[in-house]
C-alpha cells in the first residue's frame, strides 16, 4: 500500500521540485540581468556575479533533490546509472559555483561585497 502511494505522488513532487529549480534559476538570472543593466547605465557597482551564482546554486540544489527522489522510482540498472551521472554532474556544478562564490567574495573589497555595490 505504501509503495502504491509513493508511486502515485512522487512524480508530482519531483515535477514540483524541478519547476521550483527552474523558477529559481530563471528569476535569479532575470534579476542579475536587471542589476547588470542598471549598473551599466548608472555606473553603480553591484555584486551581480555573486547574486547569479547563488541563484544557480540554489536552483541546482532543488533539481538535485528531484533527481535523488527519482532514484526511488528506478526500475533498471541503466536508469540508476543515468541518474547517478546526472546527480554527479549537478553536484560538481554546485561545488564549482560555491568555489566561484568564495573566490569572488575573497577577491572583492568589503565595499564590493555589500548589496549596494557591484
From TrEMBL:
<keyword id="KW-1133">Transmembrane helix</keyword>
<dbReference type="InterPro" id="IPR012427">
    <property type="entry name" value="DUF1622"/>
</dbReference>
<keyword id="KW-0472">Membrane</keyword>
<feature type="transmembrane region" description="Helical">
    <location>
        <begin position="80"/>
        <end position="99"/>
    </location>
</feature>
<feature type="transmembrane region" description="Helical">
    <location>
        <begin position="13"/>
        <end position="34"/>
    </location>
</feature>
<keyword id="KW-0812">Transmembrane</keyword>
<protein>
    <submittedName>
        <fullName>Putative membrane protein</fullName>
    </submittedName>
</protein>
<dbReference type="Pfam" id="PF07784">
    <property type="entry name" value="DUF1622"/>
</dbReference>
